[in-house]
Amino acid sequence: MYIWLTIIAGLAVLPFLLKTVFDPYFGQDCSYIFKAIKLGIRLQKYKKKKPFYSILDCFLDTVKKQPNKTFLHFEGTSHSYIEVDKQSNKVARALKTHANLKEGDTVALFMGNEPSYACIWLGLAKLGCATALLNFNIRSKSLLHCFSCCGAKVIIAAAELKEAVEEVLPTLKQRGISVYLLSEECSVEGINPLSEHITQASDTPLSADLRANITSKSPALYIYTSGTTGLPKAALVTQERVWTASFIQAVSGVTSQDVFYINLPLYHSAGFLIGLTGAIERGITVVLRRRFSASQFWEDCRRHNVTVMQYIGETMRYLCNTPMKDNEKDHKVRIAIGNGVRSDIWREFLNRFGDVAVRELYAATEGNIGFINYTSKIGVVGRVNFLHRRLFPYTLIKFDIEKEEPVRNSKGLCIQAMKGEAGLLVGKITKRSPFVGYAGNDQQTEKKRLRDVLQTGDLYFNTGDLLRIDEQNFVQFQDRVGDTFRWKGENVATTEVADILTMVDCIVEANVYGVKVEGHEGRIGMAAVKVEEGKEFDGASTFSQVASYLPAYARPRFIRIQSSFEMTGTFKMKKVTLVEEGFNPAAVQDPLYFLDPAKKTYVPLTEEIYSSINTREIKL
Ligand SMILES: *[C@@H]1O[C@H](CO)[C@@H](O)[C@H](O)[C@H]1NC(C)=O
Ligand SMILES: *[C@@H]1O[C@H](CO)[C@@H](O)[C@H](O)[C@H]1NC(C)=O
Ligand SMILES: *[C@@H]1O[C@H](CO)[C@@H](O)[C@H](O)[C@H]1NC(C)=O
Ligand SMILES: *[C@@H]1O[C@H](CO)[C@@H](O)[C@H](O)[C@H]1NC(C)=O
């Protein structure tokens, strides 16, 4: 394996040497390739080790090397590596004795961002258990669904989530699930308080024999994919996958001197794998926040000398929306790792907050392919390079937005997208880039598998994302399938329309989607918008904005005023219910507006207008 990788490395560099003497990105390509190869070799070494060298072992080695270094800063308290280690020993001992946990068991963790999150996960890892990271915003049916699909026998919940647990307690009891609450006491029958047991337990290390059978393929975590549609799915994250995700900091240039700021929920891969376990891999200090706050962001960074920040979805936009201050460039943040930032915001962010290297990456928790922008080109998620493509074969295929399925030729095979054309990213499922699927959900797992892609019988992972590769081999993220709809034969990217809408004075946020209209193909544009406090929705200026920036087919024909948006844990706006509710004024309580091209404004959507649309007196 080792030799083989080295040969590939040599081969990989050769074509670049021949072809790219004038390529300005040549150096960056090489440096990335070498970094990636070094990490690949390290992972091979860990996998060969008997027993397997896990991220927990890495943590324990760091504890030995730098026991007194701060591992976690949280709300004014600091916890050194050795303190967290000892605390997790107590957790492990308490759970071993009282919950009778052993290697191979799965435990669901239901709590918000706080240092105990890390202690409990480490404690469970010391017992050889996998942890399912439940989203603490979910309740009732969704909570039960998430809990049961990972096959956990035990749930550990934060004290403040007691009521959410009580709500589903009868079902949990029925299924023989043990329920633990992180509090000193609890009067509810069937909920066991855990804190006292942890306090009383010894903090001496546990024998590694307890987890002797763990291999690179063992389940380490279950992470739920943020469902903008339907119920969340539990992605099984193996020990090996934890390592590859933890290397992202290293690939992005984070060193052992850095301080990492986590303000994303730890129940997602961004916060947990790229943030927390990535920090363990680097042996650095983490500044942990309960939740993201745009107004506190830079204050926190200054106070703790943060050098690496994380972003996702809308967080960069929120930062750019904060009022300007004189000291905005006064901070030590040098790297930002994340994904989902649009190029205009990216530019604005750099203008306002100074020279931060933005490592925009593309990856899915359960996916088998990822990219990272390792050059200095704004707006791209990565670059095609020979080695990457060799090791992790992927391709972009033509996609039919209307039918939401790949285009196939007469032989039933998919068609590769041309350079510059948006296509569906699919990654070949191989031993090196496996797709282990979703726990307890074969149907969803099968849905993500795509067969007969380039050859009859081959098997790919369907990322559900549309990307574009340009002439210079830069990879650009286009859209998530479902974030695009089709109207009058044209594709409308919802994020683009939302950007245009939020430039209107009275609109603070916009959630754009397509709705069905009787007798029409495709979906027509509609936007739910949040109006700035103290202001009125201004139909005329909204019209003039969309008319000047958007082609007619992309202009939202209907506008729905909402006082707040329903969000997923990663700040993605929920659309499904909105799409279903449509634009019937009799069914929707919120104020509705209709774009009237003749009057050049948005007018209130009345019952008359609604019925004229249905009878097609009003042409859309
Ligand atoms: C860590 O701190 C403890 C107590 O303050 C001290 O005894 C120990 O020598 C320190 N260890 C290292 C490696 O600095
Ligand atoms: C590891 O596996 C062996 C063989 O399957 C088994 O005998 C042993 O009890 C296992 N160890 C643990 C800690 O489960
Ligand atoms: C941040 O850095 C400054 C200057 O290097 C130093 O004086 C200060 O103690 C550091 N603060 C923290 C919290 O590490
Ligand atoms: C990614 O793009 C940004 C553009 O500002 C750049 O600063 C950064 O260095 C790029 N590369 C990496 C690896 O982040």
UniProtKB/TrEMBL annotation:
<feature type="domain" description="AMP-dependent synthetase/ligase">
    <location>
        <begin position="61"/>
        <end position="373"/>
    </location>
</feature>
<dbReference type="GO" id="GO:0004467">
    <property type="term" value="F:long-chain fatty acid-CoA ligase activity"/>
</dbReference>
<keyword id="KW-0547">Nucleotide-binding</keyword>
<keyword id="KW-0445">Lipid transport</keyword>
<feature type="signal peptide">
    <location>
        <begin position="1"/>
        <end position="19"/>
    </location>
</feature>
<dbReference type="InterPro" id="IPR000873">
    <property type="entry name" value="AMP-dep_synth/lig_dom"/>
</dbReference>
<dbReference type="InterPro" id="IPR025110">
    <property type="entry name" value="AMP-bd_C"/>
</dbReference>
<keyword id="KW-1003">Cell membrane</keyword>
<keyword id="KW-0732">Signal</keyword>
<keyword id="KW-0813">Transport</keyword>
<keyword id="KW-0472">Membrane</keyword>
<dbReference type="GO" id="GO:0005886">
    <property type="term" value="C:plasma membrane"/>
</dbReference>
<feature type="domain" description="AMP-binding enzyme C-terminal">
    <location>
        <begin position="496"/>
        <end position="572"/>
    </location>
</feature>
<dbReference type="Pfam" id="PF00501">
    <property type="entry name" value="AMP-binding"/>
</dbReference>
<protein>
    <recommendedName>
        <fullName>long-chain-fatty-acid--CoA ligase</fullName>
        <ecNumber>6.2.1.3</ecNumber>
    </recommendedName>
</protein>
<dbReference type="GO" id="GO:0005789">
    <property type="term" value="C:endoplasmic reticulum membrane"/>
</dbReference>
<keyword id="KW-0436">Ligase</keyword>
<comment type="similarity">
    <text>Belongs to the ATP-dependent AMP-binding enzyme family.</text>
</comment>
<dbReference type="GO" id="GO:0044539">
    <property type="term" value="P:long-chain fatty acid import into cell"/>
</dbReference>
<dbReference type="InterPro" id="IPR042099">
    <property type="entry name" value="ANL_N_sf"/>
</dbReference>
<dbReference type="InterPro" id="IPR020845">
    <property type="entry name" value="AMP-binding_CS"/>
</dbReference>
<dbReference type="GO" id="GO:0005324">
    <property type="term" value="F:long-chain fatty acid transmembrane transporter activity"/>
</dbReference>
<keyword id="KW-0812">Transmembrane</keyword>
<keyword id="KW-0276">Fatty acid metabolism</keyword>
<keyword id="KW-0443">Lipid metabolism</keyword>
<dbReference type="InterPro" id="IPR045851">
    <property type="entry name" value="AMP-bd_C_sf"/>
</dbReference>
<keyword id="KW-1133">Transmembrane helix</keyword>
<dbReference type="Pfam" id="PF13193">
    <property type="entry name" value="AMP-binding_C"/>
</dbReference>
<dbReference type="GO" id="GO:0000166">
    <property type="term" value="F:nucleotide binding"/>
</dbReference>
